[in-house]
Amino acid sequence: EGVVTRSVRDTAALLDVMAGYMTGDPFTAPPPMRPYRDELAVPPGRLRVGLMTQAPGNSIPVHPDCVAAAEGAARALADLGHVVELAFPKALDNPDTVADFAVIVTTWVVRDLEYWSRRSGRPVDSQTVESHNLTLYEMGRTQTALGYVQAVERLQHHSRRLLEWWAGGFDLLLTPTMAEPPARLGEFTPTPEHPGRGVDRSIPFAIFTSPFNVSGQPAVSLPLATSREGLPIGVQLVGAYGREDLLLRVAAQLEDAVPWTERRPLIHA
After folding, report:
1. Where on the phi/psi map is residue 228: left (φ > 0), alpha (ψ -120 to 50), or beta?
2. Most buried one in 99, 123, 136, 201, CB count within 10 A?
3. Which residues neighbour 218 within 8 Å (Cβ) at sequence distance 6 or greater?
4. What residues contact 170, with CB distance under 8 A and at least 6 apart?
5. What is the largest CA-CA distance in the chain?
6. How far is residue 175's CA from residue 221's CA, in Å, rounded to a whole number?
7. Where are the alpha helices (DSSP H) in 5-95?
8. pTM for the whole thing?
9. pLDDT digits 0-9 by tens, 70-81
């Protein structure tokens, strides 16, 4: 939810630069049919969009400003001729994915910190690593190889269940980007009493986006609304695997209907 917002055209140009892949990459996305910039002029057609305003598993409350932003985007999509329904993949309510996701993330934190420890000749401790990452490191050190593989398998199964919703007839999922408006400076700062404060505080800001880090689906955050304090509020659109083209078409359509690039908070840099 940054103050500086990127236009859809700029984003498409960036994606065109990143669209290539290297020989030997273990995973590759389907190549685009044409440059992403060319998608901006392609009408998306009449789409079926599911609207989700509760957090996955209804695990935490969603701020009214974030709900209102998603509902406002739903109205804008309906005005553009799309069909919007209160619907979302029930697989998102699976509570086990959070723990499995944590296994993957914390294990990779261990790998990265130990890699750089070897490269730099410096130890991994409180003098070299800030406490947020050190907390993740200590969590990761409790994992086992078997536990890691099992978590990967469960998340792959979860991703297949998740994608069934798109295969079942929906084109896009619409959610708030975050469950809260932008946080105040310092809210993620760990304290001696609570070194994992940053980890805990980050949950509302990743609850809607992290599922698609797992599934590998394309998603876009559009700053279509503002909070009562004038801060940008994003809405997220999620497409089926490999459908970046469709996301860009709809994002361009929404940018024309609800322009945002000239909007600035009262205080910005």
Report:
1. alpha
2. 136
3. 212, 238, 239, 241, 242, 243, 244, 247
4. 48, 49, 50, 87
5. 60
6. 9
7. 8-18, 36-39, 64-79
8. 0.87
9. 999 999 999 999
Distance CA 94, CA 92 (A): 6
Name the 3-class secondary structure at 4. Answer: coil
Tokens representing 44 are 């998306």
Cα distance from N-terminal residue to C-terminal residue, the chain: 14
Query: Highest-confidence range of 31-40, 61-70, 186-195, by mean pLDDT?
Result: 61-70
Buried b (16+ CB within 10 A) or exposed e, 56-84: beeeeebbebbbbbbbebbebbeebebeb
CA distances from 204 to 91, 98, 107 (A): 19, 13, 22
User: Are 204 and 178 a contacting pair, CB within 8 Å?
Assistant: yes
**pLDDT at residue 1 tops 50:** no
In this structure, the chain runs to a length of 269
Residue with tokens 């896009």: 172
